[in-house]
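Hello Y.,

Per our agreement to keep a running log of every chain we model this quarter, I'm adding this entry. I've kept the format consistent with earlier entries: sequence first, then predicted structure.
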Amino acid sequence: MSINTKVLNGLPNAEYITDIYAYLVDELGQVIYSFLYNPEEKSFSRSAKYNQGITALTSTPSQQYGYTSGLTLQLSNLLLESHSEGKSCKLLLQRLQALMVADPAKGKYAPSPVTFKWGKDSFGPAVITDIKWTETAWLGGEVAEARLDFTLLEIPSNQLPTGAG
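Predicted structure for the entry above:
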């Protein structure tokens, strides 16, 4: 397998930098969640939605474009491991879950929009649509090791709270 050097030479340079950690910021740019370990991978998806219609004299339906979904970022298999340091990571799970719920008593009528940041990379504004985790070790009954998956769905900037952005 050989690389297409013409394409390669047309790409921008990127520098290798150590000790850059991933985090989430709110609509005002304040860090609201820091990752214990950086993601091992990021998976993206987007889909175009079409409505099928009846077409005369053919069994293939017509396709009418509806819309293109927001870009989705799936962060899978994130490591939460504080067992070796004698710490519980329950607080990290609670903080992440709090970002996907409303709190009408505090005037928060929708989940918090966030932006994923990691060095020069940025994804958002987005909302967390699902979180799943598996606990694998405990200290005194509290989770001290887990693997976490969560999904961010891109939202339009005009859906940010007034004064943000």
